[in-house]
Amino acid sequence: MSMITTTHPGFESRPMFAIAATKNHWGFWSSLGWVVLALTVATVSVVLLSFAYYVQSGLTGIVLGGQTLESLGYAAFSAVAVAVIAVAAARRADWLVYLGLVWPRWSFIGLGFVVLTVEATFNFGLFSLLPIPDDSTTPGVVDEYRAAIGNPVALVLFWLSLTVIAPVSEEIAFRGFILRGWMSTRLGVIGAIVLSSLLFAAMHVPDKLPVFISLFVGGMLLATMRWLSGSIVPTILMHATWNLGIGILMAFDL
Q1: Nearest-CA neighbor of 120 among 253, 233, 248?
Q2: Angle at CA of residue 130, ends 127 and 136, nearest 5°
Q3: 185 φ, ψ to 5°?
Q4: What is the DSSP letter of 253?
Q5: 181-232 per-position pLDDT tens digit
Q6: What is the secondary structure of 96-156 as a DSSP string?
Q7: Structural domain boundaries of the chain?
């Protein structure tokens, strides 16, 4: 019996821990390497698609709005990156199980929303103690929203990217793949949660310390929920709800 199943009795039947017991997982560098490869392949794919778009726009005269094009590019980037990660997961086990794309107990769904209130309370206190200028928490998102205003298609794509594409792709990459592989290495559960959360925060390129702290703590909470539940379904729902809340607050503030 593994340390994880001993610590959390009743989880022995969960596929996540059964796989860990057979060492059927990617290691530290291989997990990170696959994610880097996924990002590289996705970047190259978007460059090629962009080239094809500009060629066809020159031939046909069909031109998409800037924000619409950017949202479509992000969707394509995310789809390719997730596809590469799924291929990597499938080389070790059932890719759905490996990535945590299994339905958890309903109690974990409820717990996820309780954790969200804790995160919101923490952020309220954090930004009260360390206030930052307006719009500096998510400057890129604010700019994208402003660019989409007045364009119904761009607005729909913006909200899809914010509340569906970003949460699903980021949770698959960070809590589904990287955390899953790193927990089975010498890092252990705590080390994997901390390091993957640091990487998650850094990947968002925050330019203010409070924003970095907020992202890091949020990543820690999501990673802990993934570990407890053996699934990324609660973390996807948490991430999507958080992004939706940020989007609504931002929309009313503009």
Answers
A1: 248
A2: 65
A3: -100, -170
A4: H
A5: 999 999 999 999 999 999 999 999 888 899 999 999 999 999 999 999 999 9
A6: HHHTT-S---HHHHHHHHHHHHHHHHHHHHHHHHS---TT-SSHHHHHHHHHHTT-HHHHH
A7: 3-253
